[in-house]
Amino acid sequence: MGKIGYLKRIIAAYVLKKNSQLTFWHGVPEINENANYDKLGEFYQKFSYKADYPGPFDENGVIILDYHGNVGKQKYHIAIAQYGLACYNRWKETGDKIWFEKFMNQVKWHEENIKQNEKGIWLWYADFDWDYHGILKAPWASGLAQGAGMSLVSRAYKETGNKKYLQLCERVFKSMITSIEDGGVMNKISDGVWIEETLSPACHILNGFMWALMGVWDYYLITKDETVKLWFNKFIETLDKNLNKFDTGFWSLYELSDTKMKMLASYFYHSLHIVQLKILYNISNNRNFLRYAKKWEKYRNNLLYRKMAFIYKSIFKLVYF
């Protein structure tokens, strides 16, 4: 049923051209030239295509994604946060208050939907099953969701001064520095600490970790707490030490799961990796991030490598999805 459901979603999105979750996710990743890396402001990516998402939305203006198949229409914590960030950027760009209202609609969802787990850790959860190396059973948490939510809510605190948003960020940050075994989203690995996008399995998804790091940095910018910065630096060091594992010699990997065939990034996610690395270089001044960004740009500009990546990725999807 998992593979059949996956094929239904792909056919609906790519062949029948129906409005789907891919309408929201797969635009062109771009650095936001108006972003400030030392003071909280516009989010680091433009997210223009996310702001232009046509819907559906619920009665409170919260974004809904249509996954078709057996998943259907769902409110997805990561999408809600990123749509809110897109609206925030659009508000800063245009000054039109309608975008601020849309931004705050997504903030309110985060305010009302955080839950404390059995270990006492507060998290945002997805309330639907998802097929990824097996079934992620609802409710399931994600380190990316916590990081993106913190990027969103930290900007609500900046704009309103309401300390409930600061307190919300404090709760979420705790989840990001608490191990998975103790109820959080952090994985202690042999050479550092990794914020996991999926917790079971915890397979070191690269884009999810990098987006989560931006959330940690945003929290530091509103607190200037040196403990937060120390944690951010620990995460940066882990990324620095592990980037080579994602380099295949012609393309980047999406994750580091234990499948026999390694999971290559799609063209979109490979491009996203490049943008994210440049952003994290701008934040951290770690030149290794810029080196890999330029290296992976060369891969992307190589026609043979693009074809190799496409063929490899197509075979991988047939085998594993």
Automatic annotation (TrEMBL):
Entry superkingdom: Bacteria
Pfam families in UniProt: C5-epim_C
Gene3D superfamilies: 1.50.10.20
InterPro entries: 6-hairpin_glycosidase_sf (IPR008928), C5-epim_C (IPR010598), C5-epimerase (IPR039721)
SUPFAM superfamilies (UniProt xref): Six-hairpin glycosidases (SSF48208)
Species assigned in the record: candidate division TA06 bacterium
Biological process per Gene Ontology, one example term: carbohydrate metabolic process
Signal peptide location: none
Domain D-glucuronyl C5-epimerase C-terminal: residue ranges: 117-298
Annotated protein name in UniProt: D-glucuronyl C5-epimerase C-terminal domain-containing protein
GO MF annotation: an example: heparosan-N-sulfate-glucuronate 5-epimerase activity
